[in-house]
Each structure stands twice: as structure tokens, then as C-alpha cells.
Model the fold of this input.
Amino acid sequence: MAGMEFEYDEEGGTFYFFLLSFMALVLVPATYYLWGTGESKEDPEKSRRVCQCDPCKMKKQKLKSKEPINRLKRRAIKTGLLIGWALLAVVAYKASQVELDFAEFDPYNELQIDRGATSREIKKAYHKLSIIYHPDKDTGDSQRFMKITKAYKALTDEEARKNWEEYGNPDGPGATHFGIALPKWIVEKQNSVWVLGLYALVFMVVLPVVVTILGSRQGGTDTRHIEIHGTPLYFIFLHKTPNMMLKRVLMVLAASFEFNRQYNQEVVERPSDNEQIPRLMKNLPYLNEKNKERPLCYLYSIKARCLIHAHLSRLELPQNTLEPDKDYCLKKCLYLLNEMINIVAQLVTMAHAGRVSKMPRLSTVENIMKVSQMVVQALWDNKSSLLQLPHISEDQLRHFVTRKRNIRNIRQLVGMREDERRALLRTLADDEYTNVMNVCANLPYIEMDVKTEVIDEEDPTITAGSIVTVTVRLKRQNMAVLLNLEGKTEKPEKPEEIAAEEVEEEEEEKPPTEEQVAARKPKVWEKQKKKKGKAKTGKKKPVKPVVPLKKPMTATTLTPTGTPTASGDKEEPKDSNPSTPNGGVPHQRKGRHRASYHGSTNDDSDTDSAYSDSADELADQVKQQQQSDNNEEDDDDDWMKFQEEAKKENMLETKSKETHVVHCPYYPALKYEWWWLYVADKKNQLIISAPLQVCSLMSEEEIQLKFSAPYKPGIYHYTVMLRSDSYLDFDQSQNIKLDVKEAKKIESHPQWEISDDDEEKDADDEDGSESDISDYDESDAD
Done:
């Protein structure tokens, strides 16, 4: 390459192509993702199943009250996209009008002749055009004359013609020009300030703002939503009171610095609070406002506590003052409660490490989780969980517990027969009853399967201090499977009918007993005999255990005759023959002995021993080969298992946190079903594994909980707990039993135990051997 030259676009023509490509790369994906962000049409079938109670309608209207801002935002986005596409069209038009100054050199075109012209025609055309365009003529054009001369040379000179065919230029390869598709005014000195300002605006203002907005939209239960000043507060109170009661959890929650205007400028303080808060406190009997403990006695803490208690009591508040404050407070509560649970897990870990003296109890974590359920459903813990359903009031609950029935939760209500349920809810209208059933049909129905194992060890036995893995499989269904609304299950029958059918089936399957046979006979003495015989036969005879047949080995062995046989087959005696019973000597064997009688009598025994030795060696080799193959297969299985575990962990991290929507008409925001999963020791009130929040349970999920086994051998009984963060009385638990064995002792190998004397002796031996070698070399040299 002769050389390279860089040049900017003087006329700005190529800049249009660059701008056109950049705008297309931005506008196409932006239009795809942002144009369809408007309201989607609701499915009529889905809207029919949505709750239509008055609190849900009010919540929907409240959420829609923010729509004007969203509509304005969507309109601004669409307007910006339209302007961008209009600019793209203008730039495309400008680019189409740009005339390229680069044109391919064509000597035939310059001489105005055909490509099949002869040399005579070429000379004639050159002579004709040179007369017209010669610079000395009146019609002369120097540039045109140079092109004509260059074309004539390219067609008549062999070397020039070859250069033109290879490089497109009769003069051969020239300098390579690289054009930058930017106008030249960008690099001019007088415009440098504006260019630097544009770079600073894009990279120091626009880019951080976009990243911040995208990060805030991803939202989640992490410490990003927690003020840095609130975390030490939780550490102090949870360490101070390891066994924290539910009312105190509410007090600590209300004392969070998220509700203090000194740390959070979003908090609104109004002069009307001095009148409305004391009036509200009179209707809250469990407020405990006389507590003098700091910061529980501060004004912001008392106000937040009043708002939370009013929400749990479902009291109406002034719409323009306390109601917005309550909504803001409730939206922060779930993030704060999740942070409290994380701190409890940290304190448990620190207590095991000996860094803190007090360990939080299991009841503390359960009370924090229960507060989350209470906040979402706006219910106290001593209220019935049936109040989570629409149109159900406390006056109707007295009909749920009577002498005939005992309905205390939603599961029992769903398990009733349709006619009995409708009779129980006879005070509701048909549309109200349908609404109740639709809400029940969308509630979660969880099936939990638990498996305990030790994955990282070759021996699956649980030993002291080993890492125990609890694999929990969760299957989430709608409670409609119990209501037969989706046609998946049949209508549940009465327990009495089921029991009667089971008894009838058992009687049909059983053969007639001796008592039944004896009852048909009228003789008394025969009955007594039958009874006596029954007593004998009633005792079960000891059944001999069935010995399983051993699997035939695939290894081959050599028989004394030198023929290979499968070792799994039964070996026949040396002198046995199917035609000669009792091991009689066959005629062939006799002939063999007669033929070898005159020889050495030890030949047969030597050959038999040789055959047996070779057979044993072959069998040992086959066994070793099988063991090595099995070890390789086990290693492959372990590697595949570890890869699957890593994939599952990555899938859990990348899954969406949007699951089924929770029915919570009193909670001011949209809420999705999330669950807490952990292992606990209920007997000793201990937390065994840190609570794991499951945020992606749409239909099925597999979660692994890991913890260290106790250091003392024995049998331990733990409980795997699954608790909802949104619904009351939907918790599940399953007991697990751990048989912890004593840890295996590490065997000491003799080759590892090398004393200092042995090391010195080995060093002396090495020095002696080196001196001998040197002496030997010197003697050879001599």
C-alpha cells in the first residue's frame, strides 16, 4: 500500500449516511418497545373473574387517578418518536440528493467508443476529441484533455491497460483515502467548546439519568429502598429484644427513619396533623403512645404508628391529608419488614460465630412475617382470616362456627358442599356470592414436597457438621381445583359417604372368614371348633424371607477344557454330564483317562490348576475394569448434577418477580404473591436456615436450602416452613427428621508422618550418592 490519507467530509455528504444509520438504529428498537406502552384491552373473561367489591373499585380508581401523568408521558413519548421518524425521512431525502464525487475511470466512456472497438477506432476517436479539447483551442478543456490522454494510453499501452484492469487506474495503485463521515467544522478550533459541551451533556448528564431511571424501574426488595440510617436501628432493637412481640414489631417499624422528614424529604408534615392525629389516637386502643423509649416516642414515630394501626383497623381517614400519608407509609412497610428479616438472619449468623451474645428467636421472625401479611390484608392477627374475602363482615362470622359446623378459614369454606356453602352465605346476593367464589378460585393452593440429602459428599449419610441440602418442590395452583370451577376435580363427597364406600370395598375384597362360614352352620359344637381354629390361624406364621437371586456376572471364565463360559452360569462338576445323573462318569471322560493313563498322572491336575489360575486373573481384571467404569460414570453424574444446580441458581436470579396478583383491596399498590421459605427448630425456637424469599412462583419452582448439620450425633426434628407475605392463614409446614451420625475420622497415612531424623537421613543419603557419582566421573576422566 503506497500510503494512507485521512480526510474529513468537506461538503457533508457522507455525514448524512452516518446520521441516517445512527437514527435508524435508535428509532427502530425505541418504537418497538415504547409505542405499545399504552393501555392494553382487558380480556372480558379475565375482567369477569376480577373482584368487583367496593374497596377493589376504589383502589382501581385511585390507581387510575395517576393516569393523567402517565397519559401525558405516553403522549410525549409518541410525539418524540414521530418527530424522530420525520427527521429520519428528511435525512434520508438529503442523503438521496448527495452526488458522489467518486466515479470509476472508464477509458471507453472517456473516448466515447464501444468496448469492442479496434485500435484504429481508438486512435480516430482520440484524434477527434484531442482537437476539440486541446488547451490551445478555443473549445479546449485541460482536465477533459488529460482524461482523454489517460484513456488513450490505457487502451494502447499494454502495461497501462494491465494496471487499469487490476487496480482501476492506468497509473497503478495510488494512495488509499479514508474518509471520516463527519463534517469538518467539528474539528475546527472555534467550535471545540461547543463540541466538548455536547460530549459532557451526553456522557455526564443524559447517560447517568437514563441509568438511574432504568434502575429505579426494576424495583425489588433490596437495600436500595432502605435509608442507610434505618439499618442500625433494626440491629439495636432486634439484638436488644431477641423475643420481639408483634406489637413491638409494629412500634419498631413505625420508628423507621424512612418516616422522619429529617432523613427523608418525601415525608409531608402538615399543621392539620396536630388536630387530626390526637383525634385518631382515641380510636386506637393498642397504640401504646405513652412509651418513653427513644425513638419510639418521637412525633414522627407516633404518627406513623397511628396510620398503620388505623389501616389494620380499616378506619376511614381524611382523603386529602392522612389518607395520602397512610398510603405512602404502607408502600414503604414491606421493604422495611424485609430488611428486618435480613438483619435477623445476620444476627443469627453472628451469634453462631460468637460476635453477639443474644440470638433472635424464631417467634421474632414469624411475628415480622405476620406483620407483612397484616399490612397487605389490613387485618389484625386476632381477626378471622375469612375477612380477607369480599362481602364478609364480622356479623356474618357468628354463623360460621355453630354446633353443626366449624368453619374458621378459607380452606374449610372452599371444602364445603355447594348447597351448604350457599346456605351459609344466604345473606349475600347472587352477584356478591359469585364475587366471593371468584376470589376464592384465584387464591393460591400450594403443594410442597421436601427432600433432605447431602449432595457434596460421596457418602449420602448425614454426619456431624456436614452441609445438609433441603430441596423443596413447590407447585402452585389456583384454589379453583377444589371448587370444580375449572373442571379439574370432581365435587367432593361427604366424609361419611367416602368412609362407607371404603368399608364396602374392603368387605368385597376380603374372602369370607371362618366365623361367617361357621355362622351359617346351626351346630353349636362346630362353632366352637371354628372359633378355636380361628384363634390358631389368627396368629401369623413367621414368613421366611425371600432371598433375592444374585445377578449373573458378565465376566467370562475359562473352564478346564479351555472354553470360555459366563461366570453367571452354573458351573458343572468336572465329571458331571446331563445324561449321567449323580455325577456319573461319562464315556468320553473314560476314554480320555484311558488314553492318558500311560503318561504322567499329574498332567491333568497341573492343567486344571493352570486353567483355574488364568480364570481367576481374568475375573479380577474384569472386576477392576467394571469398577473403573462405574467410578467414571459416578464422576460424570456428579458433574452433571453440579451443572444442573448452577443452572438452577442462575435461573432463579434471572426470573421475573411478577407472579400472581394478590387480592388486597386496602393495600394502596399492586401486590404480587411472594413467599418465605426456611428451616426452623420449633422445639428450641431456633432459626436453622436463613429465610429465602421466593419471588417467581408462577406454577412450579424448586428451591434448595442449605445449612450445617449439628455437631453432636443424634436424631433431630426440624420443620420446613413456607409462609406467605400477603395472605393470612395460608402458611404450610412439613417436618423433617435428620439422623446425624458421627463424623468420620481422617485416617493418618504413614507416608505423611516423616520425622526430622528420617529427613536428615534422606539428606545424608542424597549427599553420599552425589559424592559417589562425582568420584565415578573423576575416575572416568582420568
Remarks:
- Residues 219-225, 485-511, 523-607, 770-782 have pLDDT under 50 and may be disordered.
